[in-house]
Amino acid sequence: MLDNLLTNAAVHTPAGTRVSVEVTVAGDAALVRVADAGPGVPAEDRERVFDRFHRVDKARSRDRGGSGLGLAVARSLVRAHGGGIALSSEPGSTVFTVRLPLDGGPAPEHPGC
């Protein structure tokens, strides 16, 4: 999951763009935030970024990387562990927030996750 989120940031931001990872504990869940200072995800794509085969950059072909599965796989892995994943984005900032229960059970509700 983390590899997919970091790869996504590396592929969709210009070289030299700052990417950060933050891990915190909130109640009985771990929060993992992967943030970048890239161009952001267009509003029309935000609801579909976790859909299989959806690619924000339509100009990229599969032979140049990007099958549109990375974020769908990340979401599946997070859900398999009882968690949730959310996206917030605007120009200059994209943040993926993953919420995972610390006890292995379902994570408490978190807006967007």
Description:
The chain has three helices and four strands. With 113 residues, the chain is an alpha+beta fold. It has one domain: 2-Layer Sandwich (Heat Shock Protein 90). About 6% of the residues have low confidence.
List the helices and strands and how they pair.
Layout: H1 2-11, E1 19-26, E2 29-36, H2 43-46, H3 70-80, E3 84-90, E4 93-101
Antiparallel strand pairs: 1-2, 2-4, 3-4
Helix pairs in contact: 1-3
Protein name: histidine kinase
Organism: Streptomyces griseoloalbus
Pfam families: HATPase_c
| CATH topology tier name | Heat Shock Protein 90
Helix residue percentage: 10-25%
What is Rg? 14 Å
CATH superfamily: Histidine kinase-like ATPase, C-terminal domain
Which stretches are low in confidence, meaning pLDDT under 50 for 5 or more residues running?
58-64
Q: What is the β-strand count? A: 4
Classification by helices and strands: alpha+beta
CATH architecture: 2-Layer Sandwich
Question: How far apart, in Å, are the first and last alpha carbons?
Answer: 14 Å
Largest sheet: 4 strands, antiparallel
Number of continuous helical runs:
3
Q: Beta-sheet strand percentage?
A: 25-35%
Structural domain count: 1
CATH domain class: Alpha Beta
